Amino acid sequence: MENLLVWGFYFLSLYAFIPGLVSRLFGFRVFKKGLADKEIALTFDDGPDPVYTPRLLDLLARHDARATFFVVGAHAERHPELLQRMRDEGHTIGIHNYVHKTNWIMRPKTVKRQIALTADVIKRATGQAPSLYRPPWGIVNLFDFSKKGQYKIVLWSGIFGDWKSHENSKKLKNRLVKKLKPGEVLLLHDCGLTLGADKDAPAQMLEALQIYLEEGTARNYRFVTIPQLIELTEKNKANRPSWWNRALAALWLQYENLFHLVFRLKAVKAGDGGKPVFHYRKVSYSGPPIELREGVRIVKGDKVAEIHLDNSMLRQAALRSSSPVAVMIRLLRQMDHALPAVSKAVLNDPEMSTVKALYGVTMIHSGTDKLGFQLFDLPDNWFAKVSRLYLKLLFRVLSAKPKKKPTRSSSKKERGGPSAMYPRMLFMSRRDMESYRSTAAPASQNAEERNEMPLSVVAGETPVSPTVIS
Ligand SMILES: [Zn+2]
Asked: How far, in Å, is the centroid of ligand 1 from the Cα of 305?
């Protein structure tokens, strides 16, 4: 008897549990989360319900949101008009078995029948054959994997216990808002008739969802169907850099953080979400004499505020832009936005009082003259060579999308690439910074704020090393 139980357990494990685990752990042939910028997929199980589904459809329509409904065949059969409405309003319909039973206790043949019956109901109501399947309770069995190609199994990345009634919908709303993130696949229920669910639970779900949708719309999220999210995910994955590039870039950014910490660079935040755009520190200028506007002269030994572009910002700009030109434009816009803040930070910083100019070495110089910088070529020495090499490498790591492997010559042309680029020196005199400060300067920076915003100033002199806006 005991043996039988053990074997029974093993069988069940193999049949249902382990495949379920495998699919969860590895996302094997199962879609449960997307890769997107601003898209989220809402999915609703167990319906349609004559009371709650129409209310849900109204709510979605008000927010111009598309969703995916995994319907129970027996429910769908009674309400073909709701399925038609889903179709007409741009939603996607998938299968959630004919009756709400777990595949764990069904024979493969029975599961197959459940799916086929429900597919028929959907096709009869809408004229469209479904292509998505979500097994009840997400329990996938070996059979589901054997059905190659016909149905895509869709699980979820967020589940909220919305099938149970709570004192109010606030808790549910809070849980939902935490999952207001791109690529999420949210599982909710528009019917409370399933075993273990509360009949009126969907009413609270609708209340919470309304707030979630309002918040999501305000933050520019788009609510799309599963097929739309899958398509986007595939596109984004194809454009994503290889894993080693991501690892290398992560390392580089880590190294930069360390560099900033060791040499005590201060961050200047501005623009999108208050992320750092520039970092600066005081250094002694060591290059050839430079003549700036209005007779300002920078010579060896003069103190300058060396600025660096934030590399994670550079990385983001590179990943989000389709061409090098677009990267430049994006960065210039960020710099334009942050320059008043950086001028102000440096001018207000007592430790920068001896600084004669802003100074940086960068590949990204075309257009910076419009921002008020003066550009100079690097002297032809080892420092220039090292800078060039460093910046080339940096640019390649941060902006490369090595999945496309173009030929050597075309890659240079296409990217307008690192090899076509060369670093130059940027300067902006203290007087020009002052005029910057007087123009529309964002984010007031009083003495208190200064303590927490930037890190702290450089102590003394540091080696030349990556003296770059990088
Ligand atoms: Zn269900």
From this structure: 61
**Helix, strand and coil percent figures for the chain, each rounded to 5:** 50, 15, 35
| Torsions phi, psi for 278 (to 5 deg) | -120, 155
- Ligand 1 centre distance from Cα of residue 9 (Å): 24
Residue 67 has pLDDT above 60, yes or no: yes
Decide if pLDDT at 233 tops 90.
yes
Backbone dihedral angles phi then psi of residue 298, each to the nearest 5 degrees: -110, 120
CA distance linking residue 220 with residue 22, whole number of Å: 34
Strands 222-224, 152-154: pairing is: unpaired
294 by DSSP, 3-state: which? Answer: helix
User: Distance from the CA of 70 to the center of ligand 1, in angstroms?
Assistant: 8
d(CA 306, CA 357): 9
Q: Which helix (H) or strand (E) holds 115?
A: helix 108-126
Q: Output the CA 100–ligand 1 centroid distance in Å.
A: 6
Q: Which of 5-19, 298-312, 444-458 is modeled with the greatest confidence?
A: 298-312
Q: Which of 54, 117, 118 is nearest to 88 (CA)?
A: 54
Residues with catalytic function? 45, 189
Among 212, 201, 254, which residue's Cα sits nearest to residue 52?
201
Rounded to whole angstroms, the Cα distance separating 240 from 236 reads 6
Best CA proximity match to 132, nearest among 149, 109, 111? 149
- The beta strand positions in 132-218, using DSSP E, are 132-133, 152-154, 158-159, 185-189
Cα–Cα distance, 190 to 67 (Å, whole number): 12
* Residue 392: band (very low, low, confident or very high) from pLDDT cuts 50, 70, 90: confident
Whole-number Å distance, alpha carbon 91 to ligand 1 midpoint, is: 18
Distance, in Å, from the CA atom of 212 to the CA atom of 155, rounded to the nearest integer, reads 21
Alpha carbon distance, N-terminus to C-terminus of the chain? 71
Domains of the chain: 2-238 (3.20.20.370), 241-452 (no CATH)
> Residue with structure tokens 């320059």?
339
Cα separation, 152 vs 264, in Å, equals 52
Q: Which helix (H) or strand (E) holds 58?
A: helix 52-62
Element (H, E) at 312: helix 311-320
Cα-to-centroid distance, 191 and ligand 1 (Å): 9
Report if pTM > 0.70: no
For residue 175, the CA-to-ligand 1 centroid distance in Å is 19
| SS3 of residue 360 by DSSP | strand
| Interval 20-55: pLDDT, tens | 565 555 555 688 899 998 999 999 999 999 999 999
Residue 231 tokens, joined: 């398509």
Burial of 195 (0-12, 13-18, 19+ CB in 10 A): exposed
Nearest residue to 47 via CA among 67, 80, 70: 70
